[in-house]
TrEMBL record:
Domain of life: Bacteria
Protein name: AAA family ATPase
MF-aspect GO terms: 3'-5' DNA helicase activity; ATP binding; DNA binding; hydrolase activity
Keywords: ATP-binding, Helicase, Hydrolase, Nucleotide-binding
Domain UvrD-like helicase ATP-binding: 197-551
Residues binding ATP: G218, G219, P220, G221, T222, G223, K224, T225
Sequence segments annotated as region (Disordered): 1-26
Length: 700
């Protein structure tokens, strides 16, 4: 694969040039300049639109103007993001029969579609079907592509290109230098998109259909987050209308993480995707002021709790014992007990939401009354039925047989009333488990209760038993391995009529309820038929570093294979023992200073308990520190990261303080080692591990 740079363009592979014609790089630059002015023209066209004549009213005009403003924003030409990053030379016209001998076609691939004044494409959106071979074509399967060209940019200038002639048997396959350079480029600021370098196995996940749920298992830095975000962008392109109606959501583990990834989709032109943590979803209606012991949270997060709640809510249904007597004017209408029983039984058998049945019951009783009225020769209409449904007699019957249930109060009663819990957890929870979740001092009311996050998930489940939760079109769940079965259910009901992308790594599960197998997780999510894919190539962590971290795998996830890093960075790893524990802070500061001498972002990761001491030491040494997820700038590049917040984040250089303390910060050894595995796998270019206490045995 010959690479060409501005100064050293020696072996040209372009078709023979006419004497005096410009060299390929100049031609490509000319196409870039022409594309940029075409984009400018597209933007000016939208800006010049006068909507006064086409909008019927004020609301219409506001809506249309907002859409146009979005479009104008989307058409902005950002000088630091190349308008195109690749070119495909097809051997034949796309879609034409090869036998016709139709001439080849050329497409420039970029972040968005750009066309000229005649509507002919200058740049094709990376998500369009004709762009797909840019990511997937290979020597084995050239997909009718004769040449794939990648472009290299320096400070927004097109400075290099690299060609692959996929159908040329004489050309040997090589790893792309531009691809490697893009992967090695220092990270400053928030996460960026990978449109120019999506790999074939990643692309298969990105472009998999909207209908199915995909689950991706992948070690640290294999691009799960990147793939999930690009899949959303792809789905929005391929199913724009449907997803605009139903909505999309990206779920991440915490605010810092969401902040870190929030720029990726807008950079791809997608501004409408919502982001949330699972906690955000379930605390919309509950104020969380309490916490749980791990043992209680594990039981509360167990899927058996869903059945306990289902039984508890249905226990409010009582078979009718009294007939209903409705008085209208001078007449009395009676619905006998057996008929009421039939209605209640039928509603129970239909298994509709508790609240829906509660609303249907008065209408059903009123309908019986109306039938009797008709039999007696009256001609009542809908208004009469509604009036009957609202009579005190009918209301009293509904209250007796199918009373309204408040979800929070239902959970409150389960957690405070040992008999109520025992009755509905019979055969599901052991006595010990019931004791574990019962409040020792029950609160007076749902309002005054100190709900925990696990309680909020239970209330969310109870709310769904009362009234169906609104479902979105597509949900991406990142770091999914940390969700409890009940949390999976909470997410699952938010995409019950849509699909999901589930991303995670079983080896990075650090919650007491973390996922043991994707099959189980997908079952709880309600997507048991999802496809499980595996990503094994690592794009973040250098080979030496991942090899060191992978020593932990036999202890934390015995079935998983180590990540195969695509990054060679010799000398990227150092483990330093500090003999005197009192000298550890100073050694850490020195390692930070050493790392700051390089370009890029620095993360100092330490056990949560060590953070205050390190923050003070850094401040005393005059370092300005960022918090995780906060944007790195050229002036402040050092982030102090508590180990509990490191998940999903990355830094060019990582300094890891005292691994043993990171392990000891967790309730058990396996969780501690998993936390350490996360901390060890955040580095893009270099890792320095400092310790005075002995290293954990699994690592030593
Ligand atoms: N095809 C690619 N080309 C260039 N960079 C890539 C590619 N795939 C992933 N990366 C980069 O590798 C890094 C790790 O990606 P990402 O955060 O998505 O991995 P992850 O699997 O979610 O990691 P973790 O398990 O640690 O959360 C990111 O900087 C991402 O941009």
């Amino acid at each position: 694969m010959p690479a060409h740079e501005a100064e050293s363009d020696t072996t040209t592979t372009e078709p023979p040039d006419l004497p005096g014609s410009p060299d390929p790089l100049t031609r490509e630059r000319a196409h870039l300049a022409a594309s940029r002015s075409a984009l400018r023209a597209m933007r000016e066209d939208v800006q010049a639109l006068d909507i006064r004549d086409v909008t019927a009213n004020w609301v219409n005009s506001v809506v249309l103007q907002a859409q146009m403003d979005d479009r104008i924003k989307a058409l902005a030409d950002l000088s630091h993001t190349p308008l195109f990053f690749g070119r495909l030379d097809y051997l034949h016209r796309v879609g034409a029969d090869e036998a016709e001998g139709a001439e080849g076609e050329q497409f420039y691939i970029g972040r968005r579609h750009v066309h000229d004044a005649h509507g002919d494409p200058m740049v094709i959106d990376w998500r369009a079907p004709v762009s797909q071979p840019f990511y997937r074509a290979s020597r084995k399967d050239p997909q009718d592509v004769g040449r794939r060209r990648r472009f290299g940019y320096t400070s927004g200038e097109l400075t290099a290109y690299e060609d692959e002639h996929l159908t040329d048997p004489a050309e040997a396959a090589q790893t792309s230098k531009l691809l490697q350079a893009e992967i090695e480029r220092p990270r400053v600021g928030p996460m960026r998109d990978i449109v120019a370098t999506i790999q074939p196995e990643q692309d298969e996940i990105v472009r998999s259909g909207l209908g199915g749920t995909v689950c991706v298992q992948g070690g640290p830095g294999t691009g799960k987050t990147a793939v999930g975000l690009h899949r959303v962008a792809y789905l929005l392109y391929a199913h724009r209308d449907r997803l605009a109606r139903t909505g999309t959501l990206v779920i991440g583990p915490n605010r810092s993480f969401l902040h870190y990834i929030e720029q990726v989709l807008p950079a791809l032109g997608e501004l409408e995707v919502k982001q949330a943590t699972v906690d955000d979803l379930v605390t919309a209606h509950v104020e969380v002021r309490g916490t749980d012991e791990a043992a209680a949270a594990v039981v509360k997060g167990d899927a058996r709790m869903a059945e306990v709640l289902r039984r508890a809510i249905r226990s409010h249904v009582t078979p009718p014992t009294e007939p209903v007597m409705v008085v209208r004017g001078s007449r009395r209408w009676r619905v006998p007990v057996y008929e009421l029983e039939e209605i209640v039984d039928e509603l129970l058998a239909r298994d509709i939401r508790y609240g829906a049945a509660h609303e249907a019951l008065p209408q059903r009783i009123a309908h019986c009354v109306l039938t009797r009225m008709e039999e007696a020769g009256e001609a009542p209409d809908d208004r009469v039925q509604n009036a009957v449904a609202r009579t005190p007699a009918v209301k009293a019957a509904v209250k007796a047989s199918w009373p309204a249930v408040d979800p929070a109060r239902l959970v409150l009663r389960l957690l405070s009333d040992p008999e109520f819990l025992a009755a509905h957890a019979d055969g599901l929870l052991t006595e010990d488990e019931r004791k574990t979740i019962l409040w020792s001092r029950p609160p007076r009311s749902a309002k005054s209760a100190k709900w925990s996050l696990a309680d909020a998930v239970l209330i969310d489940e109870a709310r769904d038993l009362v009234a169906r939760t609104h479902s979105l079109g597509h949900v991406v769940i990142d770091e999914a391995q940390d969700l409890s079965p009940m949390q999976y259910r909470a997410v699952g009901r938010r995409c019950s009529t849509g699909s999901a992308t589930v991303l995670g790594d079983l080896a990075q599960g650090t919650t007491p309820w973390s996922t043991e197998s994707w099959e189980q997780a997908l079952f709880h999510l309600g997507k048991a038929d999802a496809l499980v894919e595996e990503l094994t190539a690592g794009f973040r962590v250098p080979r030496e570093v991942i090899a060191y971290a992978s020593r932990l795998l036999p202890s934390i996830a015995p079935g998983l294979a180590p990540v195969e890093s695509v990054r060679e960075s010799p000398g990227s790893m150092a483990v330093r023992e500090v003999a005197d524990p009192a000298g550890l802070d100073a050694a850490v500061l020195a390692a930070c200073a050493e790392s700051l001498a390089h370009e890029g972002s620095i993360g100092l990761i330490a056990a949560d308990a060590r953070i205050p001491a390190l923050a003070a030491a850094l401040e005393a040494a005059g370092h300005v520190c960022l918090s995780p997820g906060e944007e790195t700038t050229a002036e402040s590049r050092l982030t102090l990261v508590p180990a509990s917040l490191a998940k999903g984040l990355e830094y060019d250089y990582v300094v890891l303080d005292d691994p043993a303390a990171v392990v000891d910060g967790e309730p058990d050894e396996r969780t501690g080692l998993r936390r350490l595995y996360v901390a060890l796998t955040r580095a893009v270019s270099g890792l320095i591990v400092l310790h005075s206490a002995p290293l954990p045995e699994a690592l030593a």
